[in-house]
Amino acid sequence: MLRTKVFNLLARNGPSRLMSTATKLTTVEVNDKTGIATLTMCRPPVNGLNLELLKDLSTSIGEIESNKSRGLILTSSNATIFSAGLDILEMYKPEKERIRAFWTQLQEVWLALYGSSVPTAAAINGHSPAGGCLLATSCEYRVMLPKFTIGLNETQLGIVAPKWFMASFLSVLPQRQAERALNQGRMFTTEEALQIGLIDETASSKEEAVEKCAAFIGTFAKVNPLARSLTKQQFRAADLQQLENERQDDLEKFLFFVNQPAVQKGLGIYLEGLKKKSKK
Amino acid sequence: MLRTKVFNLLARNGPSRLMSTATKLTTVEVNDKTGIATLTMCRPPVNGLNLELLKDLSTSIGEIESNKSRGLILTSSNATIFSAGLDILEMYKPEKERIRAFWTQLQEVWLALYGSSVPTAAAINGHSPAGGCLLATSCEYRVMLPKFTIGLNETQLGIVAPKWFMASFLSVLPQRQAERALNQGRMFTTEEALQIGLIDETASSKEEAVEKCAAFIGTFAKVNPLARSLTKQQFRAADLQQLENERQDDLEKFLFFVNQPAVQKGLGIYLEGLKKKSKK
Amino acid sequence: MLRTKVFNLLARNGPSRLMSTATKLTTVEVNDKTGIATLTMCRPPVNGLNLELLKDLSTSIGEIESNKSRGLILTSSNATIFSAGLDILEMYKPEKERIRAFWTQLQEVWLALYGSSVPTAAAINGHSPAGGCLLATSCEYRVMLPKFTIGLNETQLGIVAPKWFMASFLSVLPQRQAERALNQGRMFTTEEALQIGLIDETASSKEEAVEKCAAFIGTFAKVNPLARSLTKQQFRAADLQQLENERQDDLEKFLFFVNQPAVQKGLGIYLEGLKKKSKK
Asked: ipTM of this model?
């Protein structure tokens, strides 16, 4: 828990301080006026969730928990991408130990964020596919900027979103819509996401999105924090417990699947496509 | 099962008879024309759910079950309050045996009402916070008068609604809305409750609310009562079974929580506030 | 797996071939252009689900699975009835061995259809009560013609829809609406079904309904089929597993219930009514 410097980064909401510089791929700033922490992912170019970013996310969520912040707002330093989801490079021709650590760390992040004792909201200031959507739907509230897309598009990539991705998705969407979107690997535009309830509000700028997230967190101002936290955790207990009970199985299932030649081939083709795109 | 006197209390719906005078804090009247029983809570000043009212509710629900009434309509004798919820005095500086009996009786009432074999509806003719909302959402249908409020506002009082309160709430609201409202301890106005589906209809008077409840119960007129009852109980079996399996745990959890000094302090402050209010 | 003849039955969608003539109460035609199989129930007069039709449904679903069709569209050869549901004659004064085979076969059909690895859709070209509604809600998408009705009306017939009927229903409807409709044994008109989400689209002819089903199945064109299938099966795993675990119990429960004198009497009265109707 380092609180080293004070920056005036969110001038409209009053002074805020940088809570931690110990991590490099995330920053945490606490607004001194509201007591709300903004957790920003900053791993160029697309906030791909690799082992290091996931570790930094875990550390930052832990800091926010233990510093008893009034809330957590998750956002991105990138102007067009919230998070592109799991870093495919972690899954393509993976090194044995590293891929285990990678998936275990992803489980950690979800357990910490979905089960967080503080109010959580996502200021979705860019595209949010797959793992990006997982992070957003693990929060309690979502505000999104226009002209971006969000969804669990795993089937489009030839992979299967595990049960706990589904749990987060189902905490937000009705069963019929959740299943169909998952099967289709559907990406929703901001407008579609608002319509179906996948997000709660839209905002015209990142600043406004963060403000709307802060306003949501402000609705808990008169609520007893302990009672609130226990209520949330009891509500989410079955989902969280399911992964806790099946963590090892879930890891082995993922490893078995990702190591299938057909899956490796698919990921290879996908990466090749990304390279060509970036060269253009 | 006492059926002692006949009163013409619901003239527009034909004669009705008072089914029982054995209990004092509830009355049960059966409409002779429709066969529907109206169960009225009448514990001044606010239908606070204390041990005695809960016992009388259990007895009355049991009577209605065993007399094979065509339906049960739950309402209040109070002009502005359906039920103010659990009587805080049962929880503040509680006597050891009494608080155990109190919580056990609350469990009984919920198991009997949520699992009732007859069609149930609530004519919500006043405010319905916390335990009042629990009773209302344990019924199959809700008609509410305007300008009142309803919701599970436990977190506002520093307490945690147990899992079975959540089950009743989730039987009515989508998961996203249910969780958010629970975490916020949100009270909905009649209009908001209608919009979100927490109630099914509004009515401009208690009489009209009771009539609309009776109309809902009338939709089962052509349905086989045994098949209907088995269908409802199968639908609600998982929720009911969960409390049955965890009754002792649920009781101990409640006792542990309510006896925390911080919770006792919070309840004390709340009661102090109520006293000041009533003196004004 | 017999693929004997080619018929030009769906001219607008290009040539299709009859996949199987081995069964008599169902036909399977595969559209050569789209690769989608249309499974048609054709047991006059009302596609009553008796042992033989259920066996043929199982065989046809199995064929479609093993031939790796791009999708399955379930429809009826009858102009006004999709399926009238379980054939009451299987349940009225039943022969011991046959009724066991009948119910076991119904379980098979549900497990195969609800758990099907290929995309499924129902072109509901007629009334679809009870078991007809079960088949329709076991598919992933529903397109229905106007002026028909659909619903699980078991309670109207004095019987109880088992848990897995409820699971299919709940995969489509919110809990509050699903429970109420089940308890009421409510039949929805096409318009009401669209409004509540029990169906996804309407169509003015069977041909258009099949086309819209094909368009839905077409949304999976760019999705990896294996990932899609595993995603769907994981999503539906809990429902499927529950019946798998309780198959024997579910059978005994059904047999016990159906053999109750009151139930037999009710079925007798119902059959008598049907006879009188058909004589008119």
From this structure: 0.89
